[in-house]
Amino acid sequence: MTFRPTSLRLLHVLPICLLTNCGLQKDIDIELPAGPAQLVAECYLEDGVIPRLTVTETVPYLSTTETITLPEVTVVLTLPNGTHDTLQYAPGLDRNTRKTYTHISKRRLRARPGDTFQLDITDKQGRHLTGTATMPTAIPIESVEWKFNDKPEGERQAYLTARFQDPASTTDFYRFQIHKNYVHRDTESDYNVDDRLTNGQLVTLGTSYRFNPQDTLIVSLYHIDQPYYQFMQSTDDARSANGNPFAQPSAIRSTVQGGVGVFTVLNYQRKTVILK
């Protein structure tokens, strides 16, 4: 690679200007484009749980973070047998997940691996958001193990590993979580993986040395579909890029059409261990 002499001079001048504040700073106003507001949906279906859904709309990047309610929205969930379940507008707080919701069903969901559900949201402005999600198969956790380091008593910590068998001949995606004491609190470990390098193999996922003796840990393995995997990857990238002038901007890869958000069916296996 060839550098021009002017580039070399700039490399020497720039650090001096940064140290001496030589008047290179200039404030400018950038007018961000404000497009039409889109519907935003967040819905995670789960077998045996009453469906709950949050519907809001997009706002400009620098706007205030105020609660947006859309009572005049019709939310219809189509079940695998073709019947329609119209969710009621009844904002509330899920005490288990500590998440707010805007719409809720009257009956518990029955979902089996392979079942496909459809989401249809409309409003009086003519906006129309749709989504389709299929429940993945369950992938059992074969074992959960941990090992303590050799530090003195009081400083000793353990790492944890979980093993499961990845199905052969299919492309699979997973979310691995570890909670301490309660599953609906902040995670101790949370990341997503695929089986590009481990297809059909016995997979081991784990952590660093971070847990103490007698910790109660809840290990969860979610078998997820590709759209939900891509959605979570894109939200992680967008979160990392937000406010970072050196990061590449990242767009959210929604699992829905006609708006922004996520619609998926969860299927997970869970084990609880005490680190003796």
Layout of strands and helices, then pairs:
Layout: H1 5-20, E1 39-46, E2 52-57, E3 73-78, E4 84-94, E5 99-104, E6 116-123, E7 128-134, E8 143-148, E9 158-165, E10 173-180, E11 187-194, E12 202-206, E13 216-224, H2 226-241, E14 256-257, E15 260-266, E16 268-274
Parallel strand pairs: 1-15
Antiparallel strand pairs: 1-2, 2-5, 3-4, 3-6, 4-5, 6-7, 7-14, 8-9, 9-12, 10-11, 10-13, 13-16
Question: Which terms would index this structure?
Answer:
276 residues; mainly beta; nine-stranded mixed sheet; four-stranded antiparallel sheet; 12% helix; 41% strand; globular
Structure explained in plain terms:
This protein is mostly beta strands and 276 residues long. The chain is 12% helix and 41% strand. It contains two helices and 16 strands. The chain has a nine-stranded mixed β-sheet with strand order 14-7-6-3-4-5-2-1-15, with no helix packed on it. Strands 11-10-13-16 form a four-stranded antiparallel β-sheet. The longest helix has 16 residues. The protein is globular and about 65 Å long. The N and C termini lie far apart (58 Å).
The proportion of strand residues reads: 35-45%
Order of helices and strands: HEEEEEEEEEEEEEHEEE
Largest sheet, if any?
9 strands, mixed
Main β-sheet, spatial strand arrangement = 14-7-6-3-4-5-2-1-15
**Outline, from the CA principal axes?**
globular
Give the % helix.
10-25%
Question: In terms of structural class, how would the helical and strand content be classed?
Answer: mainly beta
Rg, please? 24 Å
State the distance separating the first and last CA atoms: 58 Å
The overall pLDDT average reads 88
Residue stretches low in confidence (pLDDT < 50, at least 5 long) are 1-19
